[in-house]
Amino acid sequence: MQSKTQYTWWFCDDLPTDPRIDKGLILVTGATGYIGGRLVPELLARNYRVRVMVRSFSPDYASRWPGAEIVQGDALDVEQLNTALKGVDTAYYLIHSLLLGYKKFEKTDIQVAINFRIAAENQKIKGIIYLSGLGKRNTQLSPHLENRAIVGENLSQGPIPVTILRAGMIIGSGSASYEILSNLVRNTPIFFIPGWAKTKSQPIALRDVIKYLVGVLELDEARGKEFDIGGKTILTYDKKLRDLAKLLGKKRIFLPAVITTHAVYGYLASLLTPVPGPITKVLVRGCRNEAICHNNEIRELIKFEPLSFEEALIAALLREEKDQVTSRWSDSFPYAHELSVKLTELNPVPKYNTSYCLLSFKEPASLFKSFCSIGGKVGWFQSNWMWRLRGMIDRLLLGVGSSRGRRSYSELRVDDVIDFFRVENIKKDKLLLLRAEMKIPGKAWLEFIIDSYEGLNKLSVTAYFQPSGIMGKLYWYFFLPFHFYLFKALIKQIEKRS
Ligand SMILES: NC(=O)c1ccc[n+]([C@@H]2O[C@H](COP(=O)([O-])OP(=O)(O)OC[C@H]3O[C@@H](n4cnc5c(N)ncnc54)[C@H](OP(=O)(O)O)[C@@H]3O)[C@@H](O)[C@H]2O)c1
C-alpha cells in the first residue's frame, strides 16, 4: 500500500464511493503518462491490487509504486498485451501517442485500441475504463478529438463493457494545458485574440478527473456507460487567459487578432511555453471545438462538488509552489521512442566521448545534490545563454528545446526530464546519467559520476555520442570546442556549489 504520509493529501479521500476490493486485479496502462502517474498512487492508497503496464522498465518503479506489480508491454504487440491482461478484472486504458505528432499518432492510437480490445477479449476481462476527449460528435471535430472518439468506438466493439469518461481541458500541476496557459500569461505582455478563442469549454481539475476515474470503478451502475466530465465553470479560452492573468496579478493587453491560423498559434505556443510543438499544435487546433458537458449523468451517480476553473488553477499553483508535482505531461516518452535506447545497451560504448574531471574533498552526498539540482529555473550554473541558445535552435526545429524545465526541484527520478535531457539512471550519491532528447544527428548522453578514494572524490562529467552518418560526425567535431568550454566550467561550478 502507498504510504499516506508520502503526499499531503489524496484526491479520492472524499469520494462518495467505497473501495471495492472484490474487484481483484486492476491494470493501469499509460501509468508513465500524466494521468496514469496520478491514478496509480490513488488506487494503491485505496488498497487495490494494481498491475502497471510500462513500455520501458526501470528499477525505480518499485519505489514509485510500492506494492504494484510491474509488467513490461508495448500495446502494439498483442502477445505482450495478453500477458499484461492475464488475470485482470478491470483495465484502465490511458494509452496515448500524441507525442508522435500529427502524422503518426492517429493511426498508431487506433491500432493500439484494436490490439487492446482483442487481448482484453482473449483474457476475458470484466471491464475497461477509458479517458477520452470532450467534444460533440457529428460536429467538425479536430483530428485529435475525432481520434479520441474513434479509439473509444474501437475499444467498445466487442462484448467487454467499456466505461468512457470524456474530459476537456484538464487543469492540474504538470498538465500540458495548465503549463501552456500559465507560461503564456507569465511571459506574454500582449495577446492577439483570434475569433476561435471565444469558443466555450468546461475545464476540469485534475483531482476531479482522478475521482471520476476511481468512482466509475467502484460503482456498478457506471459500468459500460459513457459520461461527460467537467468542472463548475464554462468559459471561453480568452476568458481563461484573462482570469489567470488576474489571479497572477499580471496586467495584460488583449487585442483582436488579424492572423487567426491555428498552426501559427500552435507554433508560437511551442516557442513561448515549455510544451513542445507536437502537443501545442494539437491542443490549439482543438480549441475550435466547443468542449462542454452535454450528458451530466455522472453528477448524479458520483456526487461531489467539482472545482471551478479558478479553484483548479489555485490548486495547481499551490502544488507547483510546494514543489509537489507528482506527474507531468513530459513524463511520457517523446516522438522518437527509440530514444529510450539505453547507454548500457550499446555495445561497445560509443567511441565518441569526452570526459572532464576534478578532485574534491567535499562529501559525495553534497556533490551529488549539486549536480542533481541542475537545469530548469536554476539553469546550467555557467554560460546559461549558450545552453538556452542551443535549446532555442532545437525549438525552432520543432524539437523539445531547453524550456521543458523540471517536474520537481527537490526530487529527481528515472524518466524525469531536465530541459532537453531525460534521466536514464540515477544512483544516490554516485551517478546521474542523462539522455539527450534534442534533435541531433545521433544519440547523446551526459554522465556525472563520483568516485571516492579514501576521503578524496573524483567528480567526472562525460559526454557520449553515437553519430548517425557523416552529419553526426561533423556535429560532434563542430561542438567539441564548445563542450570543452562548457563542461569544464560546469564541473567547477558543481563543485563550488556543493
Ligand atoms: N492530459 C490531458 O490534459 C487530457 C485531457 C483530456 C483527455 N485526456 C485523455 O487521457 C488519456 C491519458 O492522457 P495522458 O495525458 O495521461 O497521456 P500521456 O501523458 O501522453 O501518456 C500516454 C501514456 O501512453 C503510453 N503509451 C503510448 N504508446 C504506448 C504503447 N504503444 N504501448 C504502451 N503504452 C503506450 C505512454 O508510455 P511511454 O511513457 O512509454 O511513452 C504513456 O504512459 C488519453 O486518452 C487522453 O486523450 C488527457
Core attributes:
about 500 residues; alpha/beta; Rossmann fold; Alpha-D-Glucose-1,6-Bisphosphate, Chain A, domain 4; seven-stranded parallel beta sheet; six-stranded antiparallel beta sheet; 15 helices; about 35% helix; globular; disordered N terminus; binds NADP nicotinamide-adenine-dinucleotide phosphate
Overview of the structural elements:
- This protein is of the alpha/beta class and 498 residues long.
- The protein has two domains: 11-169 and 202-229 and 287-319, NAD(P)-binding Rossmann-like Domain (Rossmann fold, 3-Layer(aba) Sandwich), CATH 3.40.50; 348-497, Alpha-D-Glucose-1,6-Bisphosphate, Chain A, domain 4 (2-Layer Sandwich), CATH 3.30.530.20.
- The protein is 37% helix and 20% strand.
- It contains 15 helices and 19 strands.
- The protein has helices at residues 34-45, 61-64, 78-85, 102-122, 143-155, 176-187, 206-218, 237-247, 262-272, 277-286, 297-301, 309-321, 364-372, 384-396, 469-497, and strands at residues 25-28, 49-54, 69-72, 88-93, 127-133, 162-167, 170-171, 190-193, 200-201, 204-205, 226-229, 235-236, 253-256, 352-360, 417-418, 421-427, 431-436, 442-453, 456-467.
- The strands form five sheets. A seven-stranded parallel β-sheet has the order 3-2-1-4-5-6-11, with helices on both faces. A six-stranded antiparallel β-sheet has the order 14-19-18-17-16-15. Strands 7-10 form a two-stranded parallel sheet.
- Helix 2 links the parallel strand 2 (49-54) and strand 3 (69-72).
- Helix 4 (102-122) packs parallel to helix 5 (143-155).
- The relative contact order is 0.11.
- NADP nicotinamide-adenine-dinucleotide phosphate is lined by residues 29-30, 32-36, 55-56, 74-76, 94-98, 112, 131-133, 148, 167, 170, 175-177, 329, 332-333.
